[in-house]
Amino acid sequence: MAVNFKVKVKKVNGFCDYGFKEGQEIELNGLHTPKGGFCGGAYHALFPYLNMLNFGGKFPSIDIINATCADGGKVMFEIKVQPDEEDVNIMSAEKRNNELDVYAEIKNTLIKIGIDEENIKPEAILSTDIDMDSTEVVELIIYIEKKFGLSFESCVLKDYTLNKLSEEIYSRLGA
């Protein structure tokens, strides 16, 4: 699953074209920008940290790091990783016996990473019918690795239907 971040505006020097205010907090899910939009200069400054943390990197012995806006250093941000609410554990043998559980797990994950539930159907192809971008495909791969202990290549996974993916996971689990 994607890592959740809380980004806080620590300081604004002068005028911020995007309108960030000191003390403002923005929550980011993985590498996705908020629905209301986000300043490109700020995202440019934050991306190296968000990318590293999202793919398993850690800050050295601290929970918070500061980053400065790429637009002349006008805005200073504080990035904090939000604790994961879910425990990561491989699916137990009892749960492996039901392919519908696998489908439901994948569907719930797609909803959590921002896929519109109306587009999630058993015969929907991940890359075209569900319209998953590369970041969302990677988030799904990370989830599958954590939850089921299985790995997939993004170039292969994106062409699966949701039903085929569920069947493949179920089959690989040896159920």
TrEMBL record:
One Pfam family, please name it.
Answer: PP-binding
The record's InterPro entries line, in alphabetical order, gives: ACP-like_sf (IPR036736), CHP04076 (IPR023811), PP-bd_ACP (IPR009081)
Residue intervals of the Carrier domain = 113-166
Q: What is this protein called?
A: Acyl carrier protein
Organism ancestry: Bacteria, Bacillati, Bacillota, Clostridia, Eubacteriales
Q: Encoded by which gene?
A: acpP_1
